[in-house]
Design a protein that fits this description.
Elements: H1 8-14, E1 16-18, E2 26-28, H2 29-39, H3 56-67
Antiparallel strand pairs: 1-2
């Protein structure tokens, strides 16, 4: 089953555990890993982080990687 593009309930069933970032919440593992990456080394302060799109080829590679088991 796919993780990206799936309903949230399905994504949670595939790959979730209690969140260490949000103790009272459950979020998909891939999303939590993304949050951790952005919080590390002040990456959220990177100029253009959300304005400049990534390489579409690389984005597709990452989606395929994250959609393949284990989630």
């Amino acid at each position: 089953p796919r993780l990206f593009g799936a309903p949230l309930e399905q994504a949670l069933a595939l790959s979730s555990s209690p969140s260490s970032l949000l103790p009272l919440a459950q979020i998909p593992s891939a999303l939590e890993e993304g949050f951790r990456f952005l919080r590390a080394q002040d990456r959220l302060k990177t100029e253009g982080l959300f304005r400049i799109p990534g390489s579409s080829r690389r984005v597709q590679e990452l989606l395929a990687l994250l959609d393949s088991p284990p989630h």
